[in-house]
Amino acid sequence: MAASPTTTLTFEVLDSADPEIAELIRREYRRQSHTLELIPSENLASAAILEALGTLLTNKYAEGYPGRRYYGGCEVMDQIETLAQERARRLFGAAYVNVQPHAGSQANAAVYAAICKPGDRVMGMDLSAGGHLTHGSPANFSGKLYEIHSYLVDRETELIDYDALQRQAEEVRPKMLMVGYSAYPRRIDFARMRQIADSVEAVMVTDMAHFAGLVAGDAYPTPIPDSHVVTSTTQKTLRGAWGGLILAADEERWRKPLDSAVFPGTQGGPLMHAIAAKAVCFGEALKPEFKDYAGSVVENARAMAARLMERGLRLTTGGTDNHLMLVDLRPLGLKGRQVQDAADRVGITLNSNAIPYDEASKFNPSGIRLGSPSVTTRGMGVGEMAEIGDCVADLLEALAGDRGEAELDAIRERTLTLTNRFPLPYALS
Ligand code: DSN
Prior knowledge:
Elements: E1 7-9, H1 14-17, H2 19-33, E2 36-37, H3 47-53, E3 64-65, E4 68-69, H4 75-92, E5 96-98, H5 104-115, E6 121-125, H6 141-145, E7 147-151, H7 162-172, E8 176-180, H8 190-199, E9 203-207, H9 212-216, E10 229-233, E11 244-248, H10 251-266, H11 272-285, H12 288-310, E12 314-315, E13 324-328, H13 336-345, E14 348-349, E15 351-353, E16 367-371, H14 373-377, H15 382-400, H16 405-421, E17 426-428
The protein binds D-serine.
D-serine binds at residues 41, 104, 132, 182, 209.
């Protein structure tokens, strides 16, 4: 069934105060309205979250933590941050929580700082295998400050090879084992990861930024009890506004080092408007209907993957069991950038992405990454996922066959029909 917008967002002041920015926001609203958003790290924050974010809380400095601030006037800030912490604890079943990291990268920077000294050995999943920049890319602080030993996936199965990981950990003896991904379409065996970490006395840190919403909605295994520390973002499957988060099961061991690594270690004042928006996000995710959403995200991803494979496309690992999938473009003789640009042209937003053992340049890799979180928020179901899979497959066939504009126009009509049937959850007046 199609969703319909329930709320109208308005610009009571911005239109006259700054018409240029107001118009650009309107243009972006129109773009989001009329495109199928398949980038798996993106989602649609609710109108309530947007309202909390756009408030006068941004006027307040609140360095420190609830009850221990460096500034006066923080009574309300204390209540907001405490509420956000309590809700996050309840949502994820973690004793320790820090809601101040501005984003996922900042959460990871603080965790590295709390656990490692510069030069310490760290193992993380290579970017080319699906890891994140902050898991040790040489271009990132993580790769510059620490001695990184990246792990890959198995060349044949494209899955994490836990035995190989065990052997590598025994050789490297890392201080920290970073678990988690930005582009790996399967579940992780967190208990096995913890065994590996324990066997070499490493600290296990899981970055669940991509799948936090699936964990919150019981659609993916939780990393909390097996990991020493867990980091996350709030804007992906968790469907909040942009933000970071750190959790740990053992409050006594981790509160002091993690709190001080966030503030004053790597950040100044917290973004209190963002923390209020996180509290609203956690409140939404605690509602029973969020479980339905998380379950549908996984079901929808599976349906999209199934249709793409029925159409003869090769998905890495042969499918998905989370919210994302990677299509290998090599059999079609296509490259990621070309597909990403053509997809924009037909109203599908996706990103070019490396696939395991990709020999192409990382600026124009051999894959595309697709996901279901945003289209699921719009109310689409498995039937629409099959249609989206067909639109993507038709686009790839048209590009591979070097067919003309008319074919792309026809796909554009179909994506527009879907976005018109399933509007954003808010209108903009
Ligand atoms: N860059 C994000 C993604 O798209 O997966 C991860 O932070």
